[in-house]
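Researcher: Good morning. I'm working through a list of sequences from a screen, and I'd like to move beyond sequence-only analysis. For each chain I'm collecting a predicted structure so we can compare shapes side by side. This is the next one on the list. No need for commentary yet; just the structure.
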Amino acid sequence: MTSADDGIHRLEVPTPFSVGAVNAYLLDDDPLTLVDTGPNSGTSLDRLERGLTALGHRVEDLGLIVVTHQHMDHLGLVDVLARRSGADVAALDVLAPWAAD
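Model: Good morning. Structure tokens for this chain:
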């Protein structure tokens, strides 16, 4: 059994940083959950949207966005995605005030 069989899908999101692409994960559950977002760039958003589409979803289908940590390559698109989807955003309690700014 693969992770995809369990409803966990890896979405590779490009970054302009030397680290290269990062991974976001779509959890095909209720609510539809995205773990990390990638950086705030048009290229990253486009690739993320294409990945969601390939799995039969749209940004607007997201119900929850989980931010694992404060690096911009992991939370850069959270505001755009949360606004478009109306999804709740979850983060560690020590990260939440920083991310809210």
